[in-house]
Specification:
3 helices, 7-stranded mixed beta sheet, alpha+beta, PRC-brl_dom, globular, PRC_barrel-like_sf, 90 residues, 39% strand, SH3 type barrels, PRC-barrel domain-containing protein, 17% helix
Length: 90
């Protein structure tokens, strides 16, 4: 079992090692399941996704894309598929 503090601040990477960002928040559903990770994106990831660079670009990724959690979180896509997986967070 993991605690929220175990995930917040972890680095998120793609299968091919591209650094996407860090977990900033968790979105929890009404039935108390973690649905999405809210990420503070790197500037390279924001450009790759097509998010306008701002002071703190943020993106959201479904936990369905999480492949593994260890020292960092790996999502199940490569850099080329990032735009379809990570969406802008409002």
């Amino acid at each position: 079992m993991m605690l929220t503090r175990d995930l917040v601040g972890k680095v998120v990477v793609t299968l091919d090692g591209f650094h996407v960002g860090k977990v900033e928040e968790l979105e929890i559903s009404e039935d108390w399941k973690v649905q999405n990770l809210v990420l503070r994106l790197t500037s390279d990831a924001a450009r790759e996704i097509g998010i306008r660079l701002s002071f703190k670009p943020r993106g959201i990724v479904s936990t369905a894309h999480v492949k593994g959690v260890a020292d960092y979180i790996t999502i199940d896509v490569e850099k080329a598929q990032l735009k379809e997986t990570v969406k802008p967070h409002k």
